[in-house]
From TrEMBL:
GO molecular function list: ATP binding
Family recorded in the similarity comment: Belongs to the ABC transporter superfamily.
Keyword terms: Amino-acid transport, ATP-binding, Cell membrane, Membrane, Nucleotide-binding, Transport
KW Transport (keyword) present: yes
Membrane topology label: Peripheral membrane protein
Transmembrane regions listed in the UniProt entry: none
Subcellular location as annotated: Cell inner membrane
The organism's place on the tree of life at top rank: Bacteria
Native organism: Hafnia psychrotolerans
GN (gene name): glnQ
Domain ABC transporter: residue ranges: 12-251
Protein name (record): ABC transporter ATP-binding protein
Amino acid sequence: MSNRETRPHPKISIRDLHKRFGNNVVLSGIDFDVFSGQVIVIIGPSGSGKSTFLRCCNGLELPERGDITLCGSPLISKGKPLPEKQLNQLRKEVGMVFQSFNLFPHLSVLENLCVAPMMLRNLDKATAQQNALKLLDKVGLTSKAQAMPGNLSGGQKQRVAISRALAMSPSVMLFDEPTSALDPELVGEVLQVMKMLASEGMTMMIVTHEMGFAREVADVVVVMDGGGIVEAGPPEQIFGAPQSERTRQFLNAVL
Ligand code: ADP
Ligand code: MG
């Protein structure tokens, strides 16, 4: 766990976050801080609000109530988002990876990595391509630079999606079940890339059902149920000595 004395300013600070869809209360008062370099793994049953929580953290969902501060700037204040222009500015700091990859199907792998940096970070094409090739090398996909997404395996697609997010040089990465759509034999290569990012000090929030990964890589495991945080603590606590009956029930069901 991070030492709060040496890291006084959270990368992401979430206070009193409330979100509902119609009458369905999905987040009911979440308070949480993510410090620089921390790996936060969020677990919990389906429908407990994990995706909504993550999506609020980059302004993809708008809460009714609450405050979110990103890298010291308010992203959402009293349930109101920043003006669009500033919101987009701040969003560049948050990379997001989805279960369904969401690559641009009509663009090559290399082009997938270059679009956002050229449009949003004003990089020229040569620089964007140079950066992209470095990132592809990092995730072991240099040979796929000219390939189209449709010709890649799921594991390769997800590694491209991760490097595409990294191409924006985000200061935080959010992952929503990045391995849930993959055949079992392809899960490892994606988790490996995420472990590498963790070891490099990337700040990450990861929703996953991969309990082995959570145990090994998380600084803090957050257990969600019914739109709230049931328990948060180091993996030794969550998996070894859970404080909450709900945590025990959930782990019994999945382990
Ligand atoms: P989890 O990721 O833990 O499975 P979600 O955040 O996806 O949970 O969903 C929590 C609840 O919010 C569910 O009841 C879901 O049906 C509802 N929900 C999520 N997104 C929407 C949406 N866009 N519109 C309406 N209801 C939604
Ligand atoms: Mg979800």
